[in-house]
Specification:
The chain contains 1 helix and 68 strands. The longest helix is centred in the N-terminal third of the chain and has 14 residues, at 8-21. The strands form 15 sheets. Strands 2, 4, 5, 8, 9 and 10 form a 6-stranded mixed beta sheet that branches. Strands 12, 14, 15, 18, 19 and 20 form a 6-stranded mixed beta sheet that branches. By secondary structure, the protein is mostly beta strands. The chain folds into 5 domains: 29-119, Immunoglobulins (Immunoglobulin-like, Sandwich); 127-212, Immunoglobulin-like; 217-303, Sandwich (Immunoglobulin-like); 307-392, Immunoglobulins (Immunoglobulin-like), CATH 2.60.40; 409-626, Methylamine Dehydrogenase, Chain H (7 Propeller), CATH 2.130.10. Residues 457-513 form the Cyclic nucleotide-binding domain. Residues 1-19 form the signal peptide. This is Cyclic nucleotide-binding domain-containing protein. Pfam families: TIG.
């Protein structure tokens, strides 16, 4: 075949092929690429797809740009330039991303990393221009509100007041915000604000809107009739359109109101609203915006039948003048009348449970027995059962004195056995024992060993048990009184002693213990209730709580006095299955270091002379103070041991009636021992001093 002449184009192609083969026609290796710079080297966050120029060296046609580890479609421009495209996802988040170039084999490799900065977006300041709906209805369920404005971003959050609310981003001009039922629970003005996060961002101006109250309506009352003279009444009000800030009104006066739900409110009517019979008008008010006053419903108040529960004094001394007779009970009203043998006496209303009547001097001029009743007028009303009140002549102050040579810490009297029971010290005859004493004869009738250093004692009101604190053993022991045999014993915490003991009324197996830390001031570590020796979980506070304790008629209320701190607080304590808790603290009704207290017929008496209406926490009068005291409400007298004399006081007038001298009394300092005096028999008193037990009888003590 004859040779042909190659065209110019063919010669050029052949040159390129030979160049690619290199010397000798062998394959060459790809170089390792290098990035010098990126154009641009910084982009705005969320700027979308962006063209990128990669400037460097040793790029080949097969070079690939990698962003965040992922190969991107790459355009080869020259050995010093490549082009690629950043995706919207690459620039969604602010920060730095790494850009690489990869050259394939043979040879080749990965370039140095070149940083590309994604600059954060400066969020705009949001502006709220409208809400839909423009107002909401109070009392409704959670609802969504559409917020219109400008400058909203995906991170925008809406606030109603100071509370952040679930927020859904719809667009730069619209958000959807959930308003909860708690925000809608009450009517009133509200504000909504939108907050955009940094960078930039900020808080919009608050946009006002209203939660409008519905018109309330009452459909019924829990009761349509109640009794005057009662404790505060909780009245259930049924209806519609009630809100958390709805208020029940009684005769146009707002009363404490508890929201139950949109159809039920509970209102508390005070004792002052229930002092007399009549008709009360009940309405409900919802506050603006919206709202209004419901239609009225009547509540009939009728007088109940009065009940006398206690006369703090059931006796008086003939010929000693008139006085004020205090009557405790229930269902008393403003026009209740106390009657003396059926005759009305001037009566002062002190509350639904208290009346004060003026008894004239001629009523008590001579010895007699009167019947005390209380009458309430119609509608309803009636007359209480009668309570006897005895007027006695004052007996002679001559006395018979007996002593028993036992150094005792404390004593009680058991009327069932007519015995005085004393706790004998370890240094005394009948050491570390409970000693039974016949007070009329002044002789020991029996004893039982109970343990180391018996101290305070308390008797159950049914005469079944006596409880004694064992100070040397840091324990409490129970004694069966009829058989005079020791029973269960339990320990107190960490060397504590029983500073005071009180058996719960009607609960012979339960005792309140005022736990004291010896050597501390104040000594109290709390009051604890023990049931058959097992402590209830909750104790009253220690340190400055009531370290002297007394029950009255109820086992659910315990009274205490702090005699070891200058506060001298008088405490009311609630008692239940959980234990003891303070419910009230009052100052100024009892005072003095080492003052002891005793309870009798609705009152607490202090050895400082204070006479306190316990439930009302009001001082009723003052007797002379002393080391020990006994009270006989049936006789209407109090007996105060003061030095070497027993002074007899009238419980009605608080005046002294007589003095009985008792020679030779030598009492311990009250910081070392609390002196106790008890009534025994019809005309006896017993008390302890340092070395012996005194048994005193006198006609002036007698019933």
């Amino acid at each position: 075949m004859s040779p042909r002449r190659l065209s110019g184009a063919a010669l050029a192609m052949l040159g390129l092929l030979l160049a690619a083969c290199g010397d000798g026609g062998t394959e060459s290796s790809n170089p390792i690429p290098a990035i010098v710079t990126l154009e641009p080297n910084s982009v705005q966050q969320r700027s979308g797809e962006t063209a990128l120029r990669v400037i460097g060296n040793d790029f080949v046609r097969q070079s690939v740009v990698r962003v965040k580890g992922t190969d991107r479609p790459t355009q080869f421009v020259s050995g010093t330039e490549l082009r690629a495209t950043l995706t919207a996802a690459d620039v969604e988040a602010a920060g730095q991303i790494q850009v690489l170039v990869f050259n394939p084999e043979p040879g080749g490799g990965v370039s140095n990393a070149a940083p590309l900065t994604v600059s954060p977006v400066q969020n705009p300041l949001p502006v709220v221009s409208a809400l839909a709906p423009a107002a909401l209805t109070a009392g409704g369920a959670s609802t969504d509100v559409t917020v219109t404005g400008t400058g909203f971003v995906a991170g925008s959050r809406a606030y109603v007041g100071n509370a952040v609310r679930p927020t859904t981003f719809v667009s730069a001009t619209q958000l959807r915000v959930q308003v909860s039922d708690t925000i809608l629970a009450t009517s009133g003005a509200r504000t909504l604000s939108v907050v955009n996060p940094q960078p930039g961002g900020g808080v919009s101006s608050p946009f006002p809107f209203e939660v409008r109250a519905p018109q309330p309506a009452i459909s019924s009352l829990g009761t349509t009739q109640t009794t005057a003279g009662r404790e505060p009444l909780t009245l259930t009000v049924n209806g519609t359109g009630f809100l958390a800030n709805s208020i029940v009104q009684v005769n146009g006066t707002a009363v404490p109101t508890t929201f139950v739900n949109g159809g039920v409110l509970n209102a508390t009517l005070s004792e002052g609203m229930l002092r007399a019979a009549g008709t009360l008008t009940i309405t409900v008010v919802n506050a603006a915006p919206g709202g209004g006053v419901s239609g009225p419903l009547p509540l009939q108040v009728v007088n109940g039948a009065p009940v006398i529960t206690i006369l703090p004094s059931r006796g008086a001394t003939a010929g000693r003048g008139g006085f004020t007779l205090y009557v405790h009970g229930t269902s008393f009203v403003e026009n209740s009348v106390v009657r003396w043998n059926g005759q009305s006496r001037p009566t002062q209303y002190l509350g639904g449970t208290r009346l004060a009547a003026t008894i004239a001097a001629e009523d008590v001029a001579g010895a007699r027995t009167a019947e005390i009743t209380v009458s309430n007028p119609a509608p309803g009303g009636g007359t209480s059962s009668g309570v006897s009140f005895t007027v006695r002549t004052l007996g002679s102050a001559a006395a018979v004195r007996r002593t028993v040579a036992i150094s005792a810490r404390d004593l009680v009297y058991d009327p069932g056995s007519d015995r005085v029971y004393a706790s004998a010290r370890s240094t005394s005859a009948y050491a570390n024992s409970i000693v039974a004493i016949d007070p009329s004869a002044g002789t020991v009738a029996g004893s039982v060993f109970v343990g180391s250093e018996p101290g305070r004692v308390a008797r159950s009101d049914d005469g079944q048990f006596l409880y004694v604190g064992l100070d040397g053993a840091s324990a409490i022991r129970r004694v069966d009184l009829p058989s005079l045999t020791p029973g269960i014993q339990w320990s107190l915490t960490g060397g504590q002693v029983a500073g005071d003991l009180e058996v719960l009324p009607g609960r012979p197996r339960s005792v309140a213990v005022s736990r004291h830390n010896r050597g501390y001031s104040p000594p109290l570590d709390g009051v604890t209730i023990y049931d058959d020796g097992v402590a209830r979980p909750q104790s009253s506070p220690g340190h400055t709580g009531g370290n002297r304790i007394e029950f009255l008629e109820s086992s659910s209320v315990l009274y205490g006095f702090n005699n070891a701190h200058t506060g001298f607080e008088f405490f009311t304590m609630g008692v239940d299955a959980a234990g003891v808790r303070h419910t009230n603290e009052t100052r100024g009704v009892i005072g003095g270091f080492y003052t002891d207290i005793l309870g009798e017929s609705g009152r607490i008496y202090g050895t400082d002379g204070s006479v306190v209406d316990a439930a009302r926490r009001v001082r009723m009068g003052t007797l002379g103070g002393g080391e020990a005291m006994a009270v006989d409400a049936g006789l209407g007298r109090a007996f105060v041991l003061s030095g070497s004399a027993i002074i007899v006081y009238d419980l009605n007038t608080f005046q002294s009636l007589a003095t009985v001298t008792v020679a030779g009394v030598s009492s311990d300092h009250p910081a070392l021992a609390v002196s106790r005096m008890v009534r025994w028999g019809d005309n006896g008193l017993a008390f302890v001093d340092t070395n012996q037990i005194y048994l005193i009888s006198s006609p002036v003590f007698g019933r």
